[in-house]
Design a protein that fits this description.
By secondary structure, the protein is mainly α. The protein has helices at about 10-25, 35-65, 75-90, 95-110, and strands at about 115-120, 125. It has one domain (about 5-125). The radius of gyration is 18 Å and the shape is elongated.
Length: about 130
Amino acid sequence: MTLGLPFAGNGAAQALEDAAVLDHLFSKVTTPSHIDAAFAAYDTTRRPRSQEVVDIARKFGRVYAYAEDGMHEDPTKMKQFFAGAAAFTNNADLQKQNDDAMKLFESAVSGGSDGVNVNAEDAVEIV
């Protein structure tokens, strides 16, 4: 999970999305050896979206502080930014997110890679 800033008010939603992916993945974990693959699939799937939410929150903070160049002087630009941010945070296809994570997990535990490796030292590596 990525540390977020409070300006987007999306922390609880991010926690629920994280929990949904983890619940979905761990429903298929049948041995301790699957745990690293589940966390790697979770991280690979969730990190891009959660990082984008952090970036949006950072920009919200800049808008609120009148530090985002030209934003407070252009209501149309501000409206477009807020509408785009709301669409990103509220209109995610969470079923697809869970399915994507599961494909990575199943590939990893069946011996495929598809972007997730678990090395001999049990460290998760995203490739």
